[in-house]
Amino acid sequence: MKKYTNIKDISNLQETIKEAILLKMNPFEFSDLGKHKTLVMLFFNASLRTRLSTEKAAKNLGMNVMILNVNDAWNLEFEDGTIMNANTSEHIKEAAQVISQYADVIAVRAFPSLTDKQKDESEFVMNSFVKHATVPIINMESATAHPLQALADAITITELTEKPKPKVVLSWAPHPKALPQAVANSFVEMMQNMDVDLTITHPEGYELSEAITKNTTINHNQEDALKDADFVYVKNWSNYKDYGKVLNQDENWMMTKSKLGKAKFMHCLPVRRNVVVEDAVLDSEQSVVMQQANNRTFSAQIVLKQILEDL
Ligand code: CP
Questions:
Q1: What is the pLDDT of residue 237?
Q2: Is the CB of 295 under 6 A from ligand 1?
Q3: Is the peptide bond preceding residue 270 cis, with omega within 30 degrees of 0?
Q4: How do residues 80-131 score in pLDDT, each as one tens digit?
Q5: 190-209: pLDDT as tens digits
Q6: What is the mean pLDDT of residues 133-149?
Q7: Residue 270: is it exposed, middle or buried by C-beta count within 10 angstroms (0-12/13-18/19+)?
Q8: Torsions phi, psi of 287, nearest 5?
Q9: Does ligand 1 have an atom closer than 6 angstroms to the CB of 158?
Q10: Ligand 1 near 294 CB (within 6 A)
Q11: Please, which residues have CB within 8 angstroms of residue 294's CB and are 6 or more apart in sequence?
């Protein structure tokens, strides 16, 4: 693997999931593979799971890890040809090349502005690192994608499914703040590549990009969509058409035990209790959020392993 900025960078998904499950059984099997190799993790935004699980994954492979909260460093300029006489002190051209001298792999987390759709969709932060760094780049959640989370979710469904083709429902939920579409986008794209029956349910007007959903079933009636579901993935995203706006906080969309039926409950975390999902769901045996969070280590580890093998 040359980079992992999008799930399309996985050449054989089924094999990759299988290998990740094997790594989970024997996490230190390849503890020499990353010897004398360094992962630099760059955070433009907060993280709990991504930060700790990716560091753990790298260390399981014997890598050194360095972490930089980018907001503690010089303000970066991403535009070409700018006269840098305002707030930015260092251009991405120098920064990415400098970091590449300290790193064998660079992982980046950079959320969208949710105010400038065109700029966010250009993935200018992630793509600037891909363009100017001289080492492989891993996406730890960008403006439009969270491929490490989606791979962890695919591993979780593969491990827990009791059917060859489970019904998976992605259900929008209310949230007081404007959140990115990244997790939902990558989850949809991942499920489109798996042997599942996928339905998306959300209020009218909350459509994700058609470039992501393609011909996936969309049902605006949540109760109807949830019928006979095996896995229910709950996630808020802000409005995509009226970009970044919170136009709906209808609490009737919150996931409850009665709506969930017999399905397993999934969420990437962090989650706001009794806003996105009621306590009774999260505290039940049907919740698999801990398994998802645990699988973040093995999604990162299989990606790092495939990248190290290709260095
Ligand atoms: N799910 C996820 O990416 O968690 P963090 O934001 O805590 O990394």
A1: 98
A2: no
A3: yes
A4: 999 999 999 999 999 999 999 999 999 999 999 999 999 999 999 999 999 9
A5: 999 999 999 999 999 999 99
A6: 98
A7: exposed
A8: -80, 130
A9: no
A10: no
A11: none
Rounded to whole angstroms, how far apart are CA atoms 257 and 237?
Answer: 22
Query: What is the C-alpha separation between 20 and 247, in angstroms, rounded?
Result: 39
| Rounded mean pLDDT, 145-171 | 98
Tens of pLDDT along 173-183? Answer: 999 999 999 99
Q: Which CATH class is domain 147-292?
A: alpha beta
Q: Which atom of ligand 1 is nearest to the CA of 293?
A: 1
* Confidence category of residue 298, pLDDT binned at 50, 70, 90: very high
Ligand 1 site-directed mutation target among 269, 294, 295, 296, most atoms within 8 Å of CB:
269
Taking residues 66-74, report their average pLDDT.
Answer: 96
* pLDDT of res. 164: 97
Measuring CA to CA, which residue among 162, 173, 144 is closest to residue 8? 144
CB contact at 8 A, 68 and 41: yes
Residues of the chain with CATH 3.40.50.1370: 7-145+294-309, 147-292
Is domain 7-145+294-309 given the CATH code 3.40.50.300 in the classification? no
Q: Residue 255 phi/psi, 5° resolution?
A: -80, 130
Model-level pTM greater than 0.90? yes
Contact 216, 198 (CB under 8 A): yes
Query: Which residue's CA is the nearest one to ligand 1's atom 4?
Result: 49
DSSP string, 160-202: H-SSSS-EEEEEE---SS---SHHHHHHHHHHHTSSSEEEEE-
Q: Which two tokens stand for residue 297?
A: 């280590």
Distance CA 179, CA 239 (A): 9
- For ligand 1, whether the C-beta of 171 sits within 6 Å is no
